[in-house]
Write a structure and sequence with these properties.
This protein has helices at 19-33, 104-107, 127-142, and strands spanning 2-6, 10-11, 39-46, 52-58, 73-79, 82-94, 98-99, 110-113, 116-119, 149-157, 169-177, 181-188, 191-201. It has 203 residues and is an alpha+beta fold. It folds into two domains: 2-99; 104-201, Hotdog Thioesterase (Thiol Ester Dehydrase, Chain A), CATH 3.10.129.
């Protein structure tokens, strides 16, 4: 098992580490460190809100890792050399830097039709940033929220997101459990590539 320090910046005016940045940095490290030829299906789960830098605990393909206490994120990827497990745990190092993020660049390209949101064109942001922003926009259109915010908390993919997906994504709402936990389908063109989950968090 490798321990890899990850350093984050806050997105826009947020005071927490954004799930899209966690996903992008984690996947970049895994692709750089993993000696696999093919990364296939993925499960990615965020367990709580974090505001500090994290350590990535990364196993080799086929290695079973013991789940640490109080994990921030757990990750599973199916590879050509076996299952790969990884965990993120918060450190005691505070995040101090931030960067600009104009989410409206995604929103203006989107259209909501019933319980579906589609994008036409590329915003310049990554596919995960696009998918999460689209899902968020759809949630605030469909559901009344008096207290709390919708957060991206889970991702299940049949294949990994690719850069080419960002301009042809569609999100289709499927289920809402007590207005607390939702499940939506992710499409790239006509291909269903997985599911994205949001949770309503009171903070």
């Amino acid at each position: 098992m490798k321990t890899i320090p990850l350093k984050f910046r806050f997105k826009g005016n947020r005071d927490y580490v954004h799930g899209t940045d966690v996903y992008n940095q984690t996947m970049d490290e895994i692709k750089a460190q993993c000696n696999c030829n093919e990364l296939k299906a993925l499960k990615f789960a965020i367990h709580h809100i974090a505001s500090r830098h994290c350590d990535l605990l990364l196993g080799d393909a086929g290695e079973v890792l013991k789940k640490p206490d109080d994990i921030f994120v757990d990750l599973f990827i199916n590879t050509d050399k076996g299952n790969l497990f990884a965990f993120l745990v918060e450190t005691n190092k505070a995040v101090k830097d931030r960067y600009e993020y104009d989410e409206n660049r995604i929103g203006v390209l989107c259209k909501i039709i019933g319980e579906k949101i589609i994008i036409s064109g590329k915003s310049g942001y990554s596919s995960i940033e696009t998918a999460v922003s689209m899902t968020k926009k759809l949630h605030y259109e469909l559901f009344q929220v008096k207290h709390g915010k919708w957060f991206f908390t889970r991702l299940e993919l049949k294949r990994l997101l690719e850069n080419a997906d960002s301009g042809k994504l569609a999100i289709v709402f499927k289920h809402n459990l007590d207005n607390r936990f939702t499940k939506s389908e992710i499409f790239s063109g006509k291909e269903c590539i997985g599911h994205i989950y949001f949770s309503l968090v009171k903070r």
